Amino acid sequence: MNRILVTGGAGFIGSNFVHHVVRHTDAHVTVLDKLTYAATRESLAGLPEDRVELVVGDIADASVVDPLVDRLDPATDAVVHYAAESHNDNSLSDPAPFVQTNIVGTFTLLEAARRTGVRFHHVSTDEVYGDLDLDDPKRFTEDTAYNPSSPYSASKAGSDHLVRAWVRSFGVRATISNCSNNYGPWQHIEKFIPRQITEVIDGRRPRVYGDGLNVRDWIHTEDHSSAVWTILEKGRIGQTYLIGADGERSNLDVVRAILRHFGRSEDDLEFVTDRAGHDRRYAIESGKLRTELGWEPTYQDFEAGLADTIAWYQAHEDWWRPAKAATEAAYAAKGQ
Ligand code: NAD
Ligand code: DAU
């Protein structure tokens, strides 16, 4: 890959991917990002200017997207599509931007890929498959039926279906990945792990929805980046690959690990109003990606990855502090 257009590259996972590409490849990156509340320019600060360019704009605006995709060479370049409205709780309060960005935005990019023939990778989520019971021995695979629960996951499912249709009907050269819950640096403090880390730093109690037994399958965002790069280089066109690192943990277990790390009592937490339609459990079977493309995660020890992440939030208070009071006020208004 010579040049990559990374949408959403100033957000959590997208910016980590841009750092990964700069560290591990020679590719030039153009980031297209609307700089919503979830993005920060700081996440791209310090990257070499001759390797990374930031264009501020909306993926749903063809007048912005088309000239950027036109600059790419279909023989050597690619679009990697991360941009999305990403938070389930926000989608329950106001679904409109989720439909606009996740569905109309993906449509706009796909039309540009169709016109130019450029390679397209669509970054999606395991939430499109709905949820599993806690005692279900099954995990999600590429053959699991779509069954999304929230406006967020429904909009991501819609975007996946558009990609599949553009591959089949128009021959767009696309791949899709569906990944489980990411953790690591630059994640907005509205999300579970950074919210609880910053609550504990502030001397408050972590807030656990419902009974706290919901399970998420955690993967370090660096492993997500290496998986996406692997798919970009070696993935078969038209295929979907599930990305996961065997990181299933209940929310209570995660919160207790954070409390332990800070030397606080494991019971020093608060149960709060549950999320409407709250998915019970996600679990990824990533055998296809590992066997077919030879990918393996490097962060095999969740507690060590969590400790690194806690240290990062301790060292970057100037980054997250400005958003903290408003984020907590919005949660408090919902009893969360
Ligand atoms: P994020 O909310 O941190 O970042 C999203 C980025 O997209 C932000 O920089 C934002 O400014 C940008 N954006 C939003 N609307 C835009 C628009 N209309 N035009 C251009 N840019 C726009 O999200 P994230 O957690 O980094 O997730 C990135 C992608 O990965 C999403 O597609 C998400 O569905 C997927 N994903 C996330 C996870 C996870 O655990 N967070 C897991 C699997 C898949
Ligand atoms: O599975 C992949 C998905 O993971 C991504 O597609 C989404 O973009 C990403 O936000 C994430 O979705 P979740 O809803 O699982 O993540 P969130 O961080 O919002 O919540 C994780 C779990 O923690 C979930 O069961 C809800 C719970 N929770 C969350 C918050 C913010 C709490 O118990 N307390 C909280 O304060």
UniProtKB/TrEMBL annotation:
UniProt catalytic activity: dTDP-alpha-D-glucose = dTDP-4-dehydro-6-deoxy-alpha-D-glucose + H2O
Cofactor(s) annotated in UniProt: NAD(+)
Entry's Gene Ontology molecular function annotations: dTDP-glucose 4,6-dehydratase activity
Enzyme Commission code: 4.2.1.46
Enzyme class: lyase
Gene3D superfamilies: NAD(P)-binding Rossmann-like Domain, UDP-galactose 4-epimerase, domain 1
Chain ranges of the NAD(P)-binding domain: 5-307
Keyword entries, A-Z: Lyase, NAD
Protein family: Belongs to the NAD(P)-dependent epimerase/dehydratase family. dTDP-glucose dehydratase subfamily.
Protein name: dTDP-glucose 4,6-dehydratase
Originating organism: Nocardioides eburneus
